[in-house]
Design goal:
This protein is mostly beta strands. The chain has two domains: about 15-205, Exo-inulinase, domain 1 (Jelly Rolls); about 250-460, Pectate Lyase C-like. About 5% of the residues lie in helices and about 50% in strands. A hairpin with a 2-residue loop joins strand 6 and strand 7 (about 115-125). The two termini are about 25 Å apart. Belongs to the polysaccharide lyase 3 family.
């Protein structure tokens, strides 16, 4: 799991003894519960979050908070964290500003997709703990409660195995059992309502996360080696074979995607010439926050998929990679979950923008590299990649990064097929250079700074 933290905010506590007691209590909690993510929005931005619907902005309300201001939005969501999170507690302060008919403000856990998750919802007159499966709602527990607009409430949502439980202001709402989602990100949501959200904290311990009385840790953009997350995709990487298309879809130009595009496992073809020219158009061009899922890209596929901001590629397959399968351009977090790619003479995933690429449950065959952080783009960034539960065969390098710019690559559960001599390079190191020059190769293999993995436990050869 990736640890993401935000800037500290030290609140004013009137009495010294009270301050000591509060901080001591929080310190004790933190000692037993690792903080996976926290955000108090004091830096004034939503870096690390991905939006789906609604009108979101960081506003000042005593302190800074995240506000969704469009009460007419049917489904407004912001997601953060890692799709590999399984058992954790998420807490947040939530202030409803207005409720429309059937409206609510909510905290989400194990967001497997944008419509499948667990939800703790504030409604006028009640609080409900819900399991939401592709938009279908099952109420696991509920409590009658006066919920007023303009009032802050502290919500806590814990997922542990198949048990889901919730609290509001420290009082239990109830618990229930569900198998809707075994893992996923956290999020906040409004449905026909406007609301503000603040002091979001995710802890990997089952139980209340740190309260908002104490200091909030600062955000660090650098991932650290952590326990292997449990894969959440329903399509694990195959040992062999390729999916059979359900149909054919003719492509004559770039398909623009905002929101979610579900291809229904059809084969989309064709665009470009199948060569290595970087001037080719992409087959799919994803707007910030978009999701592309259940798609087979036939050959030629031009320059594959372009992500212009945070994006999700779920169960996407490339039959024959031309220039690149996907290029990540301008976001903070990009997720590749499930799917596979083959016949990439250079690389499969090209990371040109900032942020972190998360690759999980993926199959790579006959490729130069699975991932490459750009070493000579016009803009130089510190970039990160996490690679988990990935199988590669006939692939020269799993990930290439630029150590002089502080890039990191974190690996877990990597299976290399058909390489008994261990020639496949897991992590290749370069020194990045300005555009127009060629990066310098400076080494390969694990270390404690840039290439984060244990070759004895994180890599398996078969």
């Amino acid at each position: 799991m990736e640890t993401r933290q935000r800037r500290r905010r030290w609140p004013i506590v009137a009495a010294g003894a009270a301050a000591f007691t509060a901080v001591a209590a929080i310190s004790a909690q933190i000692a037993f519960a690792a903080t996976l993510f926290s955000d108090n929005f004091e830096d004034g931005d939503t870096s690390g979050w991905s939006k789906s619907g609604g009108t979101w902005a960081v506003v000042s309300d005593g302190s800074k908070a995240l506000q969704q201001s469009s009460a007419g939005s049917e489904n407004a969501r912001e997601f953060a964290g890692d799709s590999g999170w399984t058992n954790y507690t998420v807490t947040a302060r939530v202030k409803p500003l207005s409720f429309g008919s059937g409206g609510h403000a909510a905290l989400l856990a194990r967001a497997k997709t944008s419509t499948t998750f667990y939800r703790l919802a504030l409604l006028p007159g009640s609080v409900q703990l819900q399991a939401v499966n592709s938009g279908s709602v099952t109420v696991l527990a509920s409590a009658s409660r006066s919920v007023s607009t303009g009032t802050w409430y502290t919500l806590g949502l814990t997922v542990s195995g198949s048990t889901v439980s919730a609290t509001v202001d420290g009082a239990s709402v109830g618990s229930g059992s569900s198998s809707v989602a075994s893992g996923g990100r956290m999020g906040v949501q409004t449905v026909y309502a406007s609301a503000e959200f603040d002091d979001v904290t995710v802890s990997d311990a089952a139980g209340p996360g740190p309260t908002t009385t104490g200091p909030t840790p600062t955000k660090s953009p650098t991932p650290t080696k952590s326990p292997t997350p449990t894969p959440t995709t329903t399509t694990p990487p195959p040992s062999s074979g390729w999916p059979t298309p359900t149909g054919q879809a003719s492509v004559s130009g770039t398909i623009q995607v905002s929101g979610t595009f579900d291809g229904g496992m059809k084969r989309y073809c064709c665009i470009g010439d199948g060569g290595q020219s970087e001037s080719q158009d992409p087959m799919f061009n994803l707007a910030a926050g978009a999701t592309l899922q259940n798609v087979i890209l036939g050959a030629p596929a031009g320059d594959g998929v372009h992500c212009n901001g945070d994006c999700h590629l779920i169960n996407v397959w490339w039959e024959d990679v031309g220039e690149d399968a996907a290029t990540f351009l301008g976001g903070s977090n990009y997720y590749v979950t499930g799917g596979g790619a083959r016949h990439a003479s250079d690389k499969i995933f090209q990371h040109n923008g900032p942020g972190t690429v998360h690759i999980s449950n993926f199959y790579a065959e006959d490729a130069g590299k699975l991932y490459r952080a750009c070493g000579n783009c016009s803009s130089s960034y510190t970039r990160h990649v996490t690679v988990d539960n990935v199988r590669v065969t006939s692939t020269k390098v799993v990930a290439g990064i630029n150590v002089n710019w502080g890039d990191t690559a974190t690996f877990s559960n990597i299976t290399v097929i058909g390489d008994s001599s261990h020639k496949t390079i897991i992590c290749d190191k370069y020194n990045g250079v300005p555009k127009g020059s060629e990066p310098t190769h400076v080494g390969s293999g694990p270390d404690s700074t840039n290439c984060l993995y244990d070759p004895n436990t994180d890599v398996h050869w078969s």
